[in-house]
Amino acid sequence: MKEEIRFDEIPEGAVLVDIRDSYSFSFGAVEGSVNIPEDRLEESITRYPAGTDFVLICRSGVLSTDAARMLRAKGISAASLAGGYVTWLADSLSARDDLSEKALHSLRSTYSYNIMSKAKQAIKEYDMLRPGDKVGVCISGGKDSMLLALIFKELHLHGNISFEPVYMVMDPGYSRETRAQIEENLRILDIPAVIFNTNIFTAVEKEKSPCTLCAKLRRGALYDHAQQLGCNKIALGHHFDDVIETTLMGMLFGGQMQCMMPRLKAAHFENMELIRPMYLVREADVIRFKNYHKLHFIQCACHFTDTCSSCDEHSGSKRKYVKELIAELKKENPQIEMNIYRSACKVNLATLISYKDLDGKIRSVLDR
């Protein structure tokens, strides 16, 4: 085999090996591929019969090319899939039919309870939508934000609150392949999104740890553009698992107890508010919905992902660690996530050593 091959060049009987981590693999993978993370590749490959051809897959073909060279140097027949998962996905999406009506119908039927009802519950419980609202529905291109857009389409068509959704995609400097993939998913799901460009990736690329700054700049750009379009709110696709993981991350790595709020007033944009309608929706149900419709999304569209170690060494690995920790705790107590959520809903200030009030002042137990 050549060092790098296209999908239509893969020889019969070759084993397709996705070397991304298992979490990324769960978001979508090349059909027929097996997941062997890069750090276990060399050990796991030896379990296959001698003479087996391997085609390695990563996000965009960068890491898989290096891994294939490593295997070839050891006498193993290995090649990298040209363009990686991103290119394969773009090619496969172009052949899909319009899924919009099927997806909306499933929100009314198969996923009525676990997704639509949960979204409606969060919207009602936290008073997220009011008549006359104009909401910027923010779409990053991932599974969560695309589902958020479909939820808003369904609410707009059949909900009991009169509001106007504006579907927005901010391009902070995506690769051509990623941009095309997002546009194709918007097409097959019939989401009429406004796409606007920024240079955020360029602005943060010289930062040692670009992730935090990037997130702040992206949030600000979304607020600004939504405000220009006449919106008074923006909606983000964070789900219940994000809420629980963020709460634990703050305690374990930030030394603070704080939650991801269901709604939040913008600090620097007058009369603007952020809402999270998927606040009570479980990630497992988002993934089931994605798989049910055979939708494919990239976990992270950041163009640093394949080469930037900071993405793994900071927020990425911390969230992964917390996700794995929760999974381990659930083996003993299946209600662990709900208990964390309920504990944040039933805080007893009289039992805290200190806390920060709404004015930002620290209140100590000694004050009492």
Q: Any overview of this molecule?
A:
- α4 packs parallel to α8 and α11 (240-253) crosses α13 (309-330).
- The longest helix is centred in the last third of the chain and has 22 residues, at 309-330.
- The protein has 2 domains: 4-93, Rhodanese-like domain (Oxidized Rhodanese, domain 1, 3-Layer(aba) Sandwich), CATH 3.40.250.10; 100-310, HUPs (Rossmann fold).
- It has 14 helices and 13 strands.
- It has helices spanning 22-27, 41-45, 62-73, 84-93, 100-108, 112-125, 143-158, 176-188, 200-204, 210-228, 240-253, 283-292, 309-330, 336-345; strands spanning 4-5, 15-18, 34-35, 54-57, 78-81, 134-138, 164-171, 194-197, 233-235, 263-265, 273-275, 354-356, 362-364.
- β12 and β13 form a beta hairpin.
